[in-house]
Structure formats: structure tokens, C-alpha cells
Amino acid sequence: MDPAGHYRDIGYLGAYSDCQRLGAELNGDKTTACFCKKFPSFFDSNWSIAENDRPLSLLACRVGGTVLVRTLRSGFRSLLEADFYELRRRSVEEYEFSYSIKSTACTSRHPQRTSLTKKGTNRGTVWLKQKETTNSVLMQQCARRLPHSAVDTPVFMPVGTQGTMKGLLPEQLLQMDCRILLCNTYHLGHRPGHELMVSLNSLMSADEKGVQFESPHTGQLTHLTPEHCIEMQEHLGADIVMQLDHVIHVLTDGPVVKEAMQRSVRWLDRCNAAHVRNDQLLFPIVQGGLSCELRIECIEQMAGKARMGIAIGGLSGGEEKNCFWRIVALCCEKLPEHMPRYVMGVGWPTDLVICSLLGADMFDCVYPTRTARFGSALVRRGGLMHLTRNEYAEDFSPIDDRCACYTCRNYTRAYIHTVINQESLGCHLLSLHNIQHHLDLMRRVRDAIENDCVGPFLKEFLEEQFEQGEVPNWVREAIAYMNYSI
């Protein structure tokens, strides 16, 4: 309650819309504040009462214009509707919340089923992060609040380059509970797109102003600056927007790697200056190639400028897997704990699992749909099923009898084998299945983290994924780094 006696809406889970004012009110070691929270839409039949009338310990950190709250007790995720808080000042940026619940404390296994933010509001975004330090390695299972949906992480984001998935309807993605989609800003406005910056390096040049493209389609030159990049993304209305970074091939070495990293830092400053919409989250992109020193330097310069999340870029371009996982582990260790970590371009099932357990939160890749276009299905046991092979011509079983996707419920391997090379329907059916496969895999990862059964999950996953071969050495080393045994 403010000095005038009025309740102020602090948003969901202690998200305080006026942090500077909150800090000014904490004049002593202990200040009691009364907040009114009226969000009945947060709760429905999926929620259950838990921990009622028991004091809970929370930590709130101010990031930008939002106070982020997370439980300190390992293994407890809470969604709270409380009337009274006691706030004890810990530092300029942190406050310790302790309170007695006067209304309700709730937990849910399925927070994504409840709408937590009214569409069109401008309250900002809150990340509720549960942190477990299991076997000395940081793993996270979190509820993410975005203006258009609620997203649980770790999460895989299918790639809809031009704003939609090839051959799939938005309704089909929603039916699969796909809540977040990666789109390509430049493809939606021009051609070529961001994914061509490396593959068409001969058509690209970068200087301090930005990136210049020679279109492989028209031959025209187009210049993309950090300011133009942000302007396009703001017009598109994306929940998360990315800075323009200087992309080089991951195997590049020498001074150009440091130059690209430092330029990405400078471009981040220009992107932040151009970014005016407070309902969109701007993610910096950490660069530095395979150099641990450059990655750390980039993180040190970018972390203080990141508001709600940060990406790890420049990987998954042909580097050795031993280098790949070690860079991801290093970045996750050095990046701020309260921010989601987005590892760009990761989509292989084993990579998703290892990176998630190392502490990464978000991933994107064209792998599921590209694999479908080549007539292959992703399956839990064995990894890939090549349905173009004649051995499936008379196989009338579903692709995967443990998959509940539309394809597995209605079509057989033999049918898909028949149409895969003749009709677009085959690619459509396989795309549906492969995306569902990745969404289910990430759901299994989240459940394993939440229920503290990562060890058994890893054992089952690796036995299925590599049933006909040895587990790769890089996987063994990454698992050993996390103090697990297989």
C-alpha cells in the first residue's frame, strides 16, 4: 500500500512496475508493504492447494523494470497470490521476501494450461525460475511468461522461417501444445535471411554500419543495420527480439573472431538504443567462436546490458562435439542465473538433452522438418526411421506406438512409405510427427528435472537413442562433467 493508501498492482509473482520507488520505500532493515493482487484467471481446476499457512522463503532480483522472484527451497515451484509481504533489504539489487500466506499457495505440474497474462496488457514479462543444483551442475525447469503465451523451459522452438511452418497449420501446432515459434525477421521482410549469413558468406560483407547482402535471387544489394533489424522486429510484434550480431563460421580463427565479437557488443548498444517497445524482450547474442577467453569477455560485456534473456550464438556449424558442449557449459556457468539461456541452432535430440542439463533453456533448429522432407521420422528407439526404404512397404504399424501425434494415430509406416516421394502429404505427416517428437522429448526433460530423476531419464534416453551402437565419447564426457554415470 502506498503512502496515499492505494493498492498498487505489482504484477505476477512480485513483478513490481516501479522498482525505483520500491527501493526508495525500503528505508530500514525491515519494511512491511501491502499489495493487492486480483488475478482470478490464474487459477482453474488444474491447480491444487499446497504448503498452506507455511512461511516460504523467496529471493527477488531486480532486472530492468521487473522484480524476479524464485523459491530458495530446492524442488518447490510456487505460484502465489498473497496479500502481505515483509521485505528485508539485502542489497541495492536484491530483496529477501518472507511472508505468511494469508490466501493461497498453489503448485501445478502444468502451468502452461493457465493463462497468466491478459493479451494486450503492458505489464511486462516475469520469469519464474526454479534452480536445482544437482550433482554440482545447474539445471533449470522454469515457467516463462510471454505476452502471447506461457512457455515452460527447457523448450524447443520449431523454425517457421517466413512466419509459418511449411505445410502445417497454426492450429495443428497449438494442438501439439507448441507455444513458441522461431521466425526469421529478414525473410519476413526481404531475402535472403539470417540463416544464409554464413552459408552464403560470399554474398555478404560486414562493416561497422551493418551487414550488406547481395541477393542470390535478384542480385540487388541490401544493407541491414542494427537499427533496421530492431525496427523490423518491433513492427512484426515478436515477443522476443534478437540483436543483430556479426556472424562468422564457427571454425574461423585468428583476429577476425575477436573483431566479430567486439562488433557484436557494439551493435548490441545500438540495438538497445533503437529498442523502444517495452512489451518485447531483446536478447543479446554471445559470440567468440571456440575461444573460452573471448566467450567470457563477451559475456562480461553483454550480461549487464541484457534485460530478460541472452543467447549463445555461433555454434552448431560443424565444430567437434567436444568443443560444442564445453562452450555451452562455460557460457551457462558464466551467464546470469535468473535469465533464460538460448542456444541457437541446436536440434539434434542428444544435443538438446545434454545442453538442457548443462543449464540451457531455449533451442531452435530446422532439423525436425528438414528430416521430414527427406522421408525420415524421428523415433525414441534408434533415433531415425528412413521410411523411403522398401522394408516399410508392408509395415502397417504406426511410426512410434508411444507417440500420440495425429500421424501415429491415423497412418501407418506403409502408407507414408507409399506417398512420401509422390505426394506432399507424406512430408506433412512426417513434419507433424517429428515436431511432436521434439516437443515430447523436451517435456520428458522438464519432468526429469522437476521430479529429480535425471539419472534414470538419462539412462533410458541413451539406451533408446544408441541401442545399436556405443554412446559417443563426447556424451560420456559431458555426463561425467555433470557427475552422472551411465
For this entry, give a set of tags.
single chain, 486 residues, alpha+beta, TIM Barrel, 3 domains, five-stranded antiparallel sheet, five-stranded parallel sheet, 15 helices, 23 strands, 21% strand, globular, disordered N terminus
Q: If you had to describe this structure to a student in words, what would you say it looks like?
A:
It contains 15 helices and 23 strands. It has 3 domains: 98 residues, no CATH class; 132 residues, no CATH class; 181 residues, Alpha-Beta Barrel (TIM Barrel). The termini are far apart. The radius of gyration is 23 Å and the shape is globular. 39% of the residues are buried. The protein is an alpha+beta fold and 486 residues long. One of its GO terms (cellular component) is cytosol. GO terms for molecular function: tRNA-guanosine(34) queuine transglycosylase activity.
The top level CATH class name of the largest domain: Alpha Beta
Tell me, rounded to a whole number, the average pLDDT: 72
Number of strands: 23
CATH topology of the largest domain: TIM Barrel
Global Rg: 23 Å
CATH superfamily grouping of the largest domain: Queuine tRNA-ribosyltransferase-like
Percent strand: 15-25%
Distance between the termini: 54 Å
Note the topology.
Elements: H1 19-25, E1 31-34, E2 48-49, E3 56-63, E4 66-71, E5 79-81, E6 84-89, E7 94-99, E8 104-107, E9 127-134, E10 137-146, E11 149-153, E12 155-158, H2 170-175, H3 185-189, H4 196-199, E13 204-206, E14 211-214, E15 221-224, H5 226-236, E16 240-242, H6 255-274, E17 281-283, E18 285-286, H7 292-302, E19 310-312, H8 321-334, E20 341-343, H9 349-358, E21 362-365, H10 367-373, E22 376-379, E23 383-386, H11 406-410, H12 413-419, H13 424-450, H14 454-465, H15 473-481
Parallel strand pairs: 12-21, 16-17, 18-19, 19-20, 20-21
Antiparallel strand pairs: 1-6, 2-8, 3-4, 3-7, 5-8, 6-7, 9-10, 10-11, 13-14, 14-15, 22-23
